[in-house]
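U., I forgot to send this yesterday:
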Amino acid sequence: MGLGALSMLLPSPVSKASAALIDLDPPLARILRYKLLIHEEPNALSKNSGFFKYDDIISLPKLIYVENTYKKKVGWYQISDTEYIEAAWVQPVFNRLNPVPKDPLPEGGTLGEITVPKVPVYTKPNVRNIHRTFYYENNFWVLRLEYDEFGKPWYELWDDLNGMSYYVPANTVHLTKPEEITPLSTDVAPDAKRIELDLYKQEIRAFEYDRQVFQTLCSTGIRDGLTPVGRWMTNRKRPCRRMVNEPANPNVYDLPGVPWVSYITLFGVAFHGAFWHSNWGNVMSNGCINMKAVDAKWIYRWTNPVVPFDQYYYTEETGTQVDVMTGFGGF
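Result:
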């Protein structure tokens, strides 16, 4: 991708750390705070020498871990010998453009994933009159391919909350192939799979016949009870969802394209990917189980039921057992 085409992604320099802005080669990083301070040491109490702004794109710095005052390991990105930023507010991303297929899309649409750090959203091909942005690893149901008056290809993306459509340049979306989301461990009996969610450790563990096969950090509800303790199951799943706060919820959010959603309760608590923070191992959510997108995809593929490739939403009476525990000896 040429420098001119990438220019819309570049932040303005705000400190000597601007040397990190931007290397044309991946990996990259997207800033997730409206003002992410650059510290002189990997310590939130140390002096700061500048800041990055929300949605700035920088070359991905070196990741290091240090112990905080609670003896817990915390991630920091090291920009230089005297410049550090908190890893919790940085999303690792790539800038990968995609070929546009010549064949028509399947009738009814198909799944697609954003593969650039950020892309402006249009209400019609080449007509942008809203201020909305989609982000790397967002999933959407792609309805069709259209061309504008200049012959530029655009994908129509379905808004699964209000039924409207939005458009992005087609080369910013990778159309998911069936083999990329084939179910995992299909030879294991459904009742031999189970998941443990440890709220104390903020950790997910998956088992097959009581043998652990997966482990990762996550981020659950910021208050006790938001992520409900007990035994649940993943009997409802969808590859993407626009998530908006409920009217009574004081935390305002509107998150299109949330990827790899595996529900465990009827009122919407789910495993899913999160692109708005990277604070894994710490409570962050309104009840859902936030994960790296790649980990949420693993859960989506490994758990039952299996979602047919051509379906946006799927449910069965039973699913994979999920035990949500306090971490102090049980439920």
